[in-house]
């Protein structure tokens, strides 16, 4: 099955952003994973919360195209603490993580529950 697309929540340059609720991590997201379309890896920050009763691993997958010449460094696996854990992951190096078609893939360990929020960091002018 295809990965579930999660949209960006943009930070506002010279402004503010209320804390967004994020996208619920459910069985579909755990099974299929997430895709972030039209990604700008160097300006992408992911927040994952974990409401499961045990620590869970979130994996940002290495890229698979010729643009991902640093993919040999492997996936980035981050442990999110049990029950009320919250981790911020990124920004990312496009040469390591960008998939063909300007995408970023994120996977979750079995049994993960909580939320994922994908932020786009602004360029300050």
Could you characterize the architecture of this molecule?
This protein has one domain (4-13, 21-120): Sandwich (Jelly Rolls), CATH 2.60.120. It is mainly beta and 125 residues long. The chain contains 2 helices and 10 strands.
Main sheet properties = 5 strands, mixed
| Proper CATH architecture | Sandwich
Our measurement of the CA-to-CA distance between the termini, rounded to an integer number of angstroms, reads 41 Å
Q: CATH topology, what is it called?
A: Jelly Rolls
Strand content: 35-45%
* CA-atom Rg in angstroms: 14 Å
Instruction: Give the oligomer, counting copies of the same chain as homo and different chains as hetero.
Output: single chain
DSSP helix fraction: under 10%
The number of domains: 1
Q: Topology as H/E string? A: EEEHEEEEEHEE
Poorly predicted regions are none
Order the strands across the largest sheet as they lie in space: 1-4-9-6-7
Per-chain topology:
Blueprint: E1 4-5, E2 8-10, E3 23-25, H1 27-32, E4 34-37, E5 44-50, E6 56-60, E7 76-80, E8 85-89, H2 94-97, E9 103-108, E10 114-120
Parallel strand pairs: 1-4, 2-10
Antiparallel strand pairs: 3-10, 4-9, 5-8, 5-10, 6-7, 6-9
What key attributes describe this structure?
10 strands; Jelly Rolls; about 10% helix; five-stranded mixed beta sheet; about 120 residues
Give a brief rundown of this model.
This protein has 125 residues and is mainly beta. It has one domain: Jelly Rolls (Sandwich). The protein is built from 2 helices and 10 strands.
């Amino acid at each position: 099955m295809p990965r579930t697309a999660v949209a960006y929540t943009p930070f506002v340059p010279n402004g503010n952003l209320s804390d967004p609720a994020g996208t619920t991590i459910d069985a579909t997201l755990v099974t299929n994973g997430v895709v972030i379309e039209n990604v700008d890896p160097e300006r992408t920050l992911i927040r994952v919360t974990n409401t499961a009763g045990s620590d869970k691993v979130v994996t940002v997958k290495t890229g698979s195209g010729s643009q991902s010449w640093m993919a040999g460094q492997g996936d980035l696996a981050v442990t999110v603490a049990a029950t009320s854990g919250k981790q911020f992951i990124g920004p990312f190096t496009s040469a390591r993580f960008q998939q063909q078609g300007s995408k970023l893939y994120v996977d979750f360990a079995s049994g993960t529950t909580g939320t994922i929020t994908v932020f786009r960091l602004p360029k300050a002018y």
